């Protein structure tokens, strides 16, 4: 019963704890052809956007709240966007950055596969789809894990949320 937890603990001590390795002997192996896709996000039926949220939806190139992109610019599978409806407020020193100044590149095997623009006063990362702007699907990530906030001195600050 506790064997799986012990294996995860040992894996966390490895140099690359999030790497996936297939072993043919002794361990349960998943066939390479089986791929698990996350459930598609469905936009809410009734939209209750405030003025600042509707302004962001227009500013971000027409992307919908649930992460479905406009038909003209499909985003590669893998980056999942949430509703961003968290009640967490950024500190007083946070600023609204100019569009295109701050961004994150999603890397896979040394290649940039996606670019996430950080064009709001806060971006919350976590597992909770309705509350987080960027959804991370991993058991070690909290519901609302961290916020990336642009500082008025030009730096990007990471604020840990300490949410389970």
Automatic annotation (TrEMBL):
Residues 40-93 are annotated as: Disordered. Transmembrane segments: none annotated. Pfam families: FHA. It comes from the Eukaryota. This is FHA domain-containing protein. It comes from Aegilops tauschii subsp. strangulata. Residues 52-63 have a biased composition (Low complexity). Residues 123-148 form the FHA domain.
């Amino acid at each position: 019963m506790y064997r799986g937890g012990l294996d995860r603990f040992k894996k966390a001590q490895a140099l690359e704890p999030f790497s996936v390795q297939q072993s043919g002997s002794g361990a349960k192996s998943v066939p390479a052809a089986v791929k698990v896709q996350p459930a598609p996000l469905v936009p809410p039926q009734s939209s209750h956007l405030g003025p600042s949220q509707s302004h962001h939806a227009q500013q971000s190139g027409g992307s919908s709240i649930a992460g479905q992109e406009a038909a003209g610019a499909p985003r590669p599978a893998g980056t999942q966007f949430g509703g961003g409806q968290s009640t967490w407020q950024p500190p007083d020193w946070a600023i609204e950055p100019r569009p295109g100044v701050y961004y994150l590149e999603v890397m896979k095997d040394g290649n940039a596969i996606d670019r996430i623009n950080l064009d709001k006063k806060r971006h919350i990362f976590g597992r909770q789809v309705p509350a987080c702007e960027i959804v991370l699907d991993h058991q070690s990530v909290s519901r609302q894990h961290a916020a990336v906030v642009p500082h008025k001195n030009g730096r990007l600050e990471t604020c840990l949320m300490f949410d389970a």
